[in-house]
Amino acid sequence: MASRYGQYCPVSLAAEILGERWTILILLALMDGVSRFNDLQRALPRISATMLSQRIRTLEDAGILQRKPNRQGHGHEYALTEAGLALESVVLGMGDWGQRWARDMTLDDLDPRHLAWSIHLRLDTAAMPTGRTVLQFEFAGAPADCKRFWIINTDGKVDMCIEHPGFEVDLKVKSDLRRFVEAWRGIRSLRTELSAGRIHLDGRSELKRAFPDWLLLSALAHVERQRAGRERTTCQRYNKA
Predict the structure, then answer these.
(1) Which listed residue, of 13, 69, 86, 119, carries a Cα 20 to 30 Å from 33's Cα?
(2) Which residues make Cβ contacts (< 8 Å) with residue 241, sequence separation at least 6?
(3) pLDDT digit string, tens, across residues 97-129
(4) What are the tens digits of pLDDT across the range 8-21?
(5) Integer distance in angstroms from the first to the last C-alpha of the chain?
(6) Are residues 85 and 112 in the same domain?
(7) Sequential DSSP letters for 98-132
(8) Quick one: 97 and 114 in the same domain?
(9) 3-state secondary structure 139-178
(10) Can you tell me whether residue 179 is helix, strand or coil?
(11) CATH number at residue 203
């Protein structure tokens, strides 16, 4: 059971549920269209299965989440209730505040598995070639067990792989992990980093030219940093360029 504050204040009552670790991120994943347990784990690679199960039960008990039969005929999936959908503005507002005012990222925050999941959700597949396109991302500074991942678009169906998918790679993307994450978040200019070769592309010339149009970047990449620090300084330098 969630910890209780023992106060009638509506903020206190809401915080009893929403203030638990991982809860907001689970809600964000559900709002992004994730509906199955395994996919929630892929979206949040650092959460344990036990913790995820506990948080899901709490959200169900609170009437925020409901379990439904899987549309494919076996197992089940999760969906937000009316109360859960009403939290969208709260969660997105937290993201907006975090982009402006939360602390600067540390190396421990740079989880390439979460980045892989985010990229596979934020591709403009209509701008990509028909058929199958395989992107390989390789990052210096990433943990040894996840220095590479692959994103595969097949006529609008996008998959992510942490292990080689067995297909020929069409375009390779190489970068320092922090630099790429900063470009993904809008702290750096993706096009500037590509032009300077600090984010390097290897593949056919037409694919390299089109690549920046494929990435939609973080949904909050347009929000400028306000907190003083390294990221705000970087953001301001690129905005003046």
Answers:
(1) 13
(2) 189, 192
(3) 999 999 999 999 999 999 999 999 999 999 999
(4) 999 999 999 999 99
(5) 51
(6) no
(7) HHHHSPPP-GGG--HHHHHHHHHHSB-GGGSPSSE
(8) no
(9) EECCCHHHCEEEEEEECCEEEEECCCCCCCCCEEEEEEHH
(10) helix
(11) 3.30.1050.10
pLDDT, position 239: 65
Q: State which of 55, 85, 101 marks the end of a domain.
A: 101
Helices 88-101 and 23-31 sit at what angle, rounded to 10 degrees?
110
Q: Strand order in 148-154's β-sheet?
A: 157-161, 148-154, 132-140, 171-176, 200-203
The parent domain of residue 81 ranges over 10-101
Looking up tokens 């740079």, which residue turns up?
Answer: 110
| pLDDT < 50: residue spans in the chain | none
Q: Which of 85, 101, 117 is the last residue of a domain?
A: 101
Residues 97 and 132 in one domain: no
State the total domains in the chain: 2
